[in-house]
Amino acid sequence: VCIHRVRSCSSIRFIKSKYVCVFDKSALKFSHQQRLFRTSAVSCGQIVQFKLSDIGEGITEVTVKEWYIKEGDSVSQFDNICEVQSDKASVTITSRYDGIIRKLHYNLDEIACVGKPLVDIEIDASKGLASEEDVVETPPVSHEEHTHQEIKGLKTLATPAVRRLAMENNIKLSEVVGTGKDKRILKEDILNYLAKQTGAILPPSPKAEIMPPLPKSETVPAAPKDKAHKIPVPVFRPIVFSGKDKTEPITGFHKTMVKTMSAALKIPHFGYSDEVDLTQLVQLREELKPLAQIRGVKLSFMPFFIKAASLGLLQYPILNASLDESCKNVTYKASHNIGVAMDTEQGLIVPNVKNVQVCSVFEIASELNRLKSLGSTGQLGTNDLNGGTFTLSNIGTVGGTYAKAVILPPEVAIGALGKIQVLPRFNGKGEVFQAQIMNVSWSADHRIIDGATMARFSNLWKSYLENPASMLLDLK
Amino acid sequence: MVLQSSLKNCLQLSCIFRTPKAGFRSTTTGGLIIQSISHDVYQNLAVEDWIHDHMNLENRPVLFLWRNSPAVVIGRHQNPWQECNLRLMRQKNIKLARRRSGGGTVYHDLGNINLTFFTTRKKYERMENLKLVVKALKGLRPQLDVHVTDRYDILLDRQYKISGTAAKLGGTAAYHHCTLLCNADKFVLSSVLRSPYRGLKSNATPSVPASVKNLFEEDPSLTCEMLLDAIAEEYAAQHQIDHHISLINPADETMLPGINNKTKELQTWEWVYGRTPKFSISTCFNLVYQDSVLDVKVDMDVKHGRIEVCNIDLPEQWLPPALCSELVKSLTGSKFCPNETTALTTTLPRVCPQDSELHSRWNLLCENMTMLM
């Protein structure tokens, strides 16, 4: 990249001297200096001590609070170097040079003095021209104009070298599209702009097409010589994907998932799915929603699913059990603490509603409201998360129809509920009607649960939901 | 008039903030006064960032007026555990924000007004700004005994702090912002700004506690609107511009391109908690379990808001050592956050023997650990 820059730069000089009668003496001197740099450049650059500049208000000392870079990092001009604090004021120090950080003069929380060196930066002489502002005469324009060039109220970011280049070629920075950091205008942007404007900027001449080869007396590096005399054309670089793999440790909620799921792997899962016609339940919920609202509770479908599950567990208690480590004993849990999988900002969390067997549908709804609001603000307590015996996962609210849920140990069963879809079905008379269909996918521990038990439980659960009135018969 | 929400003002402002093809109206040369329509602390802090990064303040300083719904705002290099009662704040739904300027911790609610003075770095001058505020207050109520201290506080009656100051200096822009207590809830203020966490050792900037008073207590006829108006008027007079306050909407991406990203960044856990300078906790607590009281000693190093090193000293055999080391291993590398710790500690019992005695001891220990955060 840097070679390209230098090469193109010298080509511009060439064109200028050929077709424009009067050329800037300082430009010649500039490129002369540049050649000197090039021929004398060896691998090690020049170390510059970047001093801590004046903060204002007569402040002489500050505390270094944060380093944004470390020794060995490469920085560009305007990159953040560190954050210092003085008396309630926080100051961001940015780099004045492109280069590599060689030394940090202070550790964190040390006092730094204004005017003393803050960091040592090694400036690569063969690279960008930013360092040359120290060595080369600046063209006869005031410094103020360059550093605070206001383009209609917005600052255009560009190094002094880039500004000089633009100025020499009569380019308005406001018309150049910056592709650098923070929309900074880079030298490539000026060159691309120039290439597009070839007709406008350079005096039109038929000779512009035919370019004689450069005589050997010009001190241009041998390799790029051929290209040096052509009109700068946007170089079509091959599309390079510069994304890098990123490795980070697993922490927090992901850690819990790793642990739980690794333990769940030991459980031999089997799946059982069915579809449930919720047409009647949908209607019932519509009627009950406003009543619950009056009592200050939002009523979803989940309280019905949960209560129906509990009624089913009364008939098939093995689904609310736990197998011990040695697989010798089964413990039938008395309480139906039904867990509800919740998707929060940090990840998956499963709080449970305690003792559903003695709760009404309204009480379940109210408890769900409480758990949901705590979950969304990250305030669920240990008690809310412990002691679950059976879990339902309503993945349908996000999407999907069928799913294969993973059992959360020490439980032995879990149900995944798909989304409710309106689908055509046949009724008893053979007519097609609109049905509200939801799919359920159960997973169970095949060591103690068999397919028939799961199927019967599912049928019972399904019958309660397809005909909600039947729940009344068995409600305790 | 203080609030002029006509469309004309919004249009005028959009010409200023957008990459303008038009030039500048004459009213804006010499200065600009803007007020946020939002009470969201993150959105308002994002506006400060935006102005600092994108506006050209040369000969065009800006005064930004804003108020927030209840929030605690800590300084750039502070430790929230050291400064405020995070537990209480979570219960009361009081937000926590970290600003980019230095200084100490403050409590904001709608009874407090915030003023931000934007200038170029060369024109950065805090004393002048505070004297402007005092002049405005005295202009409004000449009998008020208010003055600026050399610590850049404003004191009422020579003893009560009514305003705190902080500042941020960047490449070419700088801002100085300060609070002004008009009618804030002092009870909530003092309870949330008292940290219950013990045994913290840190190099973070500590706050200097002060007795506070509301201007409202001195003169019940004062309201926030009156104070904002008086300060804007004084600013306008000193900068020779129209006394005209333009309203801005901190959610308007077209007027302030990139503002929503800034707002999001200010809300991330990594910024609010993760930016806390390295600190350590060395504390102990008692566990009361079945008629016995046990001493537990905890030592933790927290860096970037995550537990780097964790050591828990329990009475021998109260919990199986394997489980203890499992707890320490889980906590290491995790966020120093009650939510995450609860999620972790409720997961571990799933994968160990189902012993109710063991589980209740475990839960007791973990609940106490969570209380430290």
From TrEMBL, chain A:
<dbReference type="InterPro" id="IPR000089">
    <property type="entry name" value="Biotin_lipoyl"/>
</dbReference>
<dbReference type="Pfam" id="PF00364">
    <property type="entry name" value="Biotin_lipoyl"/>
</dbReference>
<feature type="domain" description="Peripheral subunit-binding (PSBD)">
    <location>
        <begin position="157"/>
        <end position="194"/>
    </location>
</feature>
<dbReference type="InterPro" id="IPR011053">
    <property type="entry name" value="Single_hybrid_motif"/>
</dbReference>
<comment type="function">
    <text>The branched-chain alpha-keto dehydrogenase complex catalyzes the overall conversion of alpha-keto acids to acyl-CoA and CO(2). It contains multiple copies of three enzymatic components: branched-chain alpha-keto acid decarboxylase (E1), lipoamide acyltransferase (E2) and lipoamide dehydrogenase (E3). Within this complex, the catalytic function of this enzyme is to accept, and to transfer to coenzyme A, acyl groups that are generated by the branched-chain alpha-keto acid decarboxylase component.</text>
</comment>
<keyword id="KW-0450">Lipoyl</keyword>
<dbReference type="GO" id="GO:0005759">
    <property type="term" value="C:mitochondrial matrix"/>
</dbReference>
<feature type="domain" description="Lipoyl-binding">
    <location>
        <begin position="47"/>
        <end position="122"/>
    </location>
</feature>
<dbReference type="GO" id="GO:0005829">
    <property type="term" value="C:cytosol"/>
</dbReference>
<dbReference type="InterPro" id="IPR003016">
    <property type="entry name" value="2-oxoA_DH_lipoyl-BS"/>
</dbReference>
<protein>
    <recommendedName>
        <fullName>Dihydrolipoamide acetyltransferase component of pyruvate dehydrogenase complex</fullName>
        <ecNumber>2.3.1.-</ecNumber>
    </recommendedName>
</protein>
<dbReference type="Pfam" id="PF00198">
    <property type="entry name" value="2-oxoacid_dh"/>
</dbReference>
<dbReference type="GO" id="GO:0031405">
    <property type="term" value="F:lipoic acid binding"/>
</dbReference>
<keyword id="KW-0012">Acyltransferase</keyword>
<dbReference type="InterPro" id="IPR036625">
    <property type="entry name" value="E3-bd_dom_sf"/>
</dbReference>
<keyword id="KW-0496">Mitochondrion</keyword>
<dbReference type="InterPro" id="IPR004167">
    <property type="entry name" value="PSBD"/>
</dbReference>
<keyword id="KW-0809">Transit peptide</keyword>
<keyword id="KW-0808">Transferase</keyword>
<comment type="similarity">
    <text>Belongs to the 2-oxoacid dehydrogenase family.</text>
</comment>
<dbReference type="InterPro" id="IPR050743">
    <property type="entry name" value="2-oxoacid_DH_E2_comp"/>
</dbReference>
<dbReference type="GO" id="GO:0043754">
    <property type="term" value="F:dihydrolipoamide branched chain acyltransferase activity"/>
</dbReference>
Automatic annotation (TrEMBL), chain B:
<comment type="function">
    <text>Lipoyl amidotransferase that catalyzes the transfer of lipoyl moieties from lipoyl-protein H of the glycine cleavage system (lipoyl-GCSH) to E2 subunits of the pyruvate dehydrogenase complex (PDCE2). Unable to catalyze the transfer of octanoyl from octanoyl-GCSH to PDCE2. In vitro, it is also able to catalyze the transfer of the lipoyl group from lipoyl-AMP to the specific lysine residue of lipoyl domains of lipoate-dependent enzymes but this reaction may not be physiologically relevant.</text>
</comment>
<dbReference type="GO" id="GO:0009249">
    <property type="term" value="P:protein lipoylation"/>
</dbReference>
<keyword id="KW-0808">Transferase</keyword>
<dbReference type="InterPro" id="IPR045864">
    <property type="entry name" value="aa-tRNA-synth_II/BPL/LPL"/>
</dbReference>
<keyword id="KW-0496">Mitochondrion</keyword>
<dbReference type="GO" id="GO:0005739">
    <property type="term" value="C:mitochondrion"/>
</dbReference>
<dbReference type="Pfam" id="PF21948">
    <property type="entry name" value="LplA-B_cat"/>
</dbReference>
<keyword id="KW-0809">Transit peptide</keyword>
<feature type="domain" description="BPL/LPL catalytic">
    <location>
        <begin position="57"/>
        <end position="243"/>
    </location>
</feature>
<dbReference type="InterPro" id="IPR004562">
    <property type="entry name" value="LipoylTrfase_LipoateP_Ligase"/>
</dbReference>
<comment type="similarity">
    <text>Belongs to the LplA family.</text>
</comment>
<protein>
    <recommendedName>
        <fullName>Lipoyl amidotransferase LIPT1, mitochondrial</fullName>
        <ecNumber>2.3.1.200</ecNumber>
    </recommendedName>
</protein>
<dbReference type="GO" id="GO:0017118">
    <property type="term" value="F:lipoyltransferase activity"/>
</dbReference>
<dbReference type="InterPro" id="IPR004143">
    <property type="entry name" value="BPL_LPL_catalytic"/>
</dbReference>
<comment type="pathway">
    <text>Protein modification; protein lipoylation via exogenous pathway; protein N(6)-(lipoyl)lysine from lipoate: step 2/2.</text>
</comment>
<keyword id="KW-0012">Acyltransferase</keyword>
